[in-house]
Design a protein that fits this description.
two-stranded antiparallel ribbon, 230 residues, Nucleotidyltransferase, domain 5, 34% helix, 5-stranded mixed β-sheet, alpha/beta
Length: 230
C-alpha cells in the first residue's frame, strides 16, 4: 500500500470517529481506577494473519522477508522503522520513526521535506545510540534498502534484517498503529504553518507519547516505563 493510500485510509477513519477527541481525552493520560492484567509480559503475537495476504513478492534487495509470526518478548527484541506523510500548510512533509515493538517506545524520529534516504539513516543512527536490536524490520522502500541504510545496520553484525512483503504495510502493524495515534492526537488537530512548527510540535508530542500516554496493551503503563524497566 502506497504512502498516499495509507494517508487516505487514516483520514477516512478519522472522519468517521466524530467522538474520538472526547473519548481519548477522558482516559489516555490519566491512571484508570483499576489496572488491567499485564499483557506485555506475556509476549505480543503479531495480530495480522499471513493468510489474509497474497504471497510476498521476492525482495529485490536480496534481504530476507519474514516468514514467521514473531512473538516479541522483551525490549530491543524487534524494532520497526517506517515513513508516513505529515500535512503542512499547503505542503507535505515526511516523518520516519524507529519503534521498539515490545514497549511501543519511539527510539528516534526525523522529519524531512524530501523522501531521500538521509533522514531515515539519521533516525536509525540516533536509535542505535540508545541500544541495538536483535531484529530490525521495515518495508522494502528505497530508503530502507539504500546502501547507506543497510550499511548502517550491517555495521552491527548481530542485527537480523527483516523486510515485509511488497504492498503489505500491515506486516509492520505496531508502527501503523503508532501513525494512527500520532495523526489522530496531533497532526489532524494542527495546521502546521512551517517545517519548523511541525518539527517543534511533533517533538512535544513524542515526549508526551513516550512518557505520559498510557497504553492498555501495556497494562496502562507508558512506553518509557516498559522500555526502561527491563
Amino acid at each position: 500500500m502506497s504512502l498516499f493510500k495509507r494517508e487516505l485510509h487514516f483520514r477516512l477513519e478519522f472522519k468517521q470517529s466524530q467522538d474520538y477527541q472526547r473519548t481519548a481525552s477522558a482516559g489516555l493520560y490519566s491512571q484508570p481506577q483499576g489496572r488491567g492484567t499485564a499483557n506485555a509480559g506475556n509476549g505480543l503475537a503479531r495480530p495480522v494473519s499471513a493468510e489474509k495476504h497474497q504471497p510476498a513478492a521476492p525482495c529485490s534487495s536480496g534481504l530476507p522477508i519474514p516468514a514467521w509470526r514473531k512473538r516479541i518478548l522483551y525490549p530491543n527484541h524487534v524494532w520497526g522503522a517506517d515513513i508516513t506523510f505529515i500535512r503542512g500548510q499547503g505542503i507535505w512533509f515526511y516523518l520516519v520513526a524507529v519503534l521498539d515493538w515490545y514497549s511501543r517506545y519511539v527510539l528516534s524520529w526525523q522529519l524531512s521535506r524530501t523522501l531521500t534516504a538521509d533522514f531515515c539513516v539519521a533516525a536509525l543512527r540516533q536509535a542505535l545510540e540508545t541500544a541495538v536490536p536483535e531484529i530490525h524490520n521495515s518495508d522494502q522502500g528505497s530508503q530502507f534498502t539504500s546502501f547507506e541504510y543497510i550499511g548502517a545496520l550491517k555495521a552491527y553484525p548481530d542485527i537480523q534484517i527483516s523486510m515485509d512483503g511488497r504492498g503489505r504495510c500491515f506486516d509492520n502493524i505496531f508502527t501503523e498503529r503508532l501513525w494512527r495515534t500520532v495523526k489522530y492526537e496531533e497532526v489532524y488537530l494542527r495546521d502546521y504553518q512551517s517545517f519548523a512548527e511541525a518539527e517543534a510540535s511533533l517533538s512535544r508530542y513524542f515526549r508526551l507519547y513516550n512518557h505520559r500516554r498510557l497504553h492498555q496493551a501495556l497494562d496502562y503503563k507508558t512506553p518509557a516505563e516498559v522500555y526502561c524497566q527491563n
